[in-house]
């Protein structure tokens, strides 16, 4: 596997691309519930102080923070929890199988956000510019 070690230097950039794309798609769920964009949800716009309304705020603002890479780890932790709750409260009671209950995206979001909790934001992040220079850890 030595011949693939050159890819290691690109890991922070691949992680950043995953973070940015995940955040953009995740924010779309929030904008749909908050602003009816790109289309209003089938069940209608949720009241802001309902469980779905609070989730929409988390999806939009949390997605925005993940997008720019600000407070990535704590925000990702909260969003992973939101997605776990969404899966078990909304999707799992409908059917056991994620492909049949529509919860496969919630599961993926949960684990991608958990990945960011442990890895941080990768390259191109506000968090990266806020770090004080210190000794490199290897």
Automatic annotation (TrEMBL):
Residue ranges crossing the lipid bilayer per the database entry: 12-28, 48-68, 75-94, 106-126
Keywords (A to Z) from UniProt: Cell membrane, Membrane, Transmembrane, Transmembrane helix
One Pfam family hit: DoxX
Topology in the lipid bilayer: Multi-pass membrane protein
One GO CC term, this protein: plasma membrane
InterPro entries xref list: DoxX, DoxX-like_oxidoreductase
Cellular localization per UniProt: Cell membrane
Entry's family note: Belongs to the DoxX family.
Name used for this protein in its record: DoxX family protein
Source species taxonomy: Bacteria, Pseudomonadati, Pseudomonadota, Alphaproteobacteria, Hyphomicrobiales
């Amino acid at each position: 596997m030595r011949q693939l070690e050159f890819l290691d230097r690109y890991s922070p950039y691949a992680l950043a691309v995953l973070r940015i794309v995940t955040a953009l798609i995740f924010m779309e769920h929030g904008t749909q519930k908050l602003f009816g964009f790109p289309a209003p949800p089938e069940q209608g716009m949720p009241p802001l102080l309902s469980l779905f309304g609070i989730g929409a705020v988390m999806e939009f603002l949390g997605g925005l923070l993940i997008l720019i890479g600000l407070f990535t780890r704590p925000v990702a932790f909260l969003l992973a929890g939101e997605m776990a709750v969404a899966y078990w409260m909304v999707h799992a009671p409908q059917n056991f199988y994620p492909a049949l209950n529509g919860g496969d995206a919630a599961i993926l979001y949960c684990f991608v956000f958990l990945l960011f909790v442990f890895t941080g934001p990768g390259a191109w992040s506000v968090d990266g510019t806020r770090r004080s220079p210190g000794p490199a850890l290897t």
